[in-house]
Amino acid sequence: MPQTAPRHRPRWWTELLLIAVVYAAYSAGRLLARGDASTAIDHGLAILRAEKALLLHAEHPLNRLFTQAPALGIPADFFYASLHYVVTPAVLVWLFRRHPLRYRAARTWLMIATLLGLAGFTLMPTCPPRLLDASHGFVDTMAQYSSYGWWGAEASAPRGLGGMTNQYAAMPSLHVGWALWCGIVLWQHGRTPLKRTLAVAYPLLTTIVVMGTANHYLLDAVAGAAVIGVGALLTRPAMRLTDRVRGRFGFAGTASYSTVVGAGCETSAGERIPGQRTPSSAGADGERPGAGPAGDSTPAAAR
């Protein structure tokens, strides 16, 4: 019996509204999750002690390098203050336009990881290295080079708006988490050497920048990567739950999307090895014509 072909592209305006609502809730929750300074400082010092026990000392040499070399420190501050606001939405838009079958899973994954990060800010307010006493050896490069940018002495917020940001939201580093998400998505779905290079370089540079500017500890970066990993594991159950809710309220027809976060890494018909489809079985973007993504149980329309 012929079946209806899945709707391949979500509505852009509903996606924009959803992302705006989630980001507004995240921003508001981040402000409400402010901890007291003494607790945040204690957590920051505990991280330093843990890193010392593990023989991890990446932050100090990077911070000294950025402090002593304005040619590195100033671009790093611009990188920290702006790119996560630009690159993450750009990757979402690119995925929406070029790989709509994969978009819903990737967007859900990013949102879950972001909410996990918010839980981390709430449960463990953490003072970043730049706000510790100077005796700990860190210099706030954002403050040092503030005359070159739009930020003041309070994180990357524009001058006069420092009160609108939570400066004790260092653990986990969502700068690193979002950058890693961007890198994985670009690596999975980018078909050019440039996209593959950016997929590796962007999260690596982000990790270096957040430590060199004294905004995060190395373990913050590790935690940022961890929330991305946990978010990936929770994506499929979350999508199944939302599909059941939609079905209960009469919106079952809108749930025809891939639930595979690592789409493109599974062997499908016509593939010799994972991610290597033969020309006869792959479309222009590497997706099988007339079929859902790898792992999608939704049948294609009858031919």
Shape: globular
Overall mean pLDDT stands at 79
SSE run: HHHHHHHHHEE
User: Spatial order of the strands in the main sheet?
Assistant: 1-2
Report the count of strand segments. 2
Count of helical stretches:
9
Question: Concise description?
Answer:
This protein has 303 residues and is an all-alpha fold. The chain is built from nine helices and two strands.
Any overview of this molecule?
By secondary structure, the chain is an all-alpha fold. Helix content is 57%, strand content 2%. The protein is built from 9 helices and 2 strands; from the N terminus they run αααααααααββ. The protein has a two-stranded antiparallel ribbon with strand order 1-2. A hairpin with a 2-residue loop joins β1 and β2. α3 packs across α8 and α4 packs across α5. It is globular. The termini are close together.
Could you give the topology of this structure?
Layout: H1 12-32, H2 37-53, H3 59-68, H4 70-98, H5 100-123, H6 141-144, H7 174-189, H8 193-212, H9 218-248, E1 271-273, E2 276-277
Antiparallel strand pairs: 1-2
